[in-house]
Amino acid sequence: LATTTNDHHSMPYRSFLAATILLVIGLSVAILSTGDAESGTNKEEVVAPMIRGSMNLAEGPWPKCVGMSGENCKSYILANAKDVNSVDILPEDSMVTMDFSTSRVRIFVGDDGIVVMIPKRG
Q: Fewer CB under 10 Å: which end of the chain, C or N?
């Protein structure tokens, strides 16, 4: 089999062309499926998975607290989770111990005192 120098150069070009075509098709599908969700044709509600918890307000985590003031969130948790003994309001970049306690909740707030992460037991 005799090959020319053009055959060696066309192989990377064909691979690049195939990859580009696949990328364009993938992006088109993603855009079309996003458009369906935004237009309201997809009525299915997406619920974020709860890690070490449930949707039960007494168990946590408490996603409703994000955007509340730290103090309001603390009151909300203490009113719903009677077995929680400690609710700490901390700056969002605080270092904390790695031990886990089901009776403790840490609330991380920004500089403005607003909850920035979903509070959970630990």
A: N
Contact 54, 121 (CB under 8 A): no
User: What is the Cα–Cα distance from 11 to 61, expressed in whole angstroms?
Assistant: 54
In whole angstroms, what is the distance from residue 85 CA to residue 121 CA? Answer: 11
Q: Which residues are registered as beta bridge partners of 90?
A: 108
Render pLDDT for 22-80 as a digit per residue (tens, 0 to 9). 888 888 777 777 665 555 544 444 444 444 445 566 788 999 999 999 999 999 999 99
- Give CA–CA dist 92/114, Å, rounded: 10
Beta carbons of 122 and 100 less than 8 angstroms apart? yes
CA distances (Å), 23 to each of 9, 10, 17, 32, 65, in order? 22, 20, 10, 14, 39
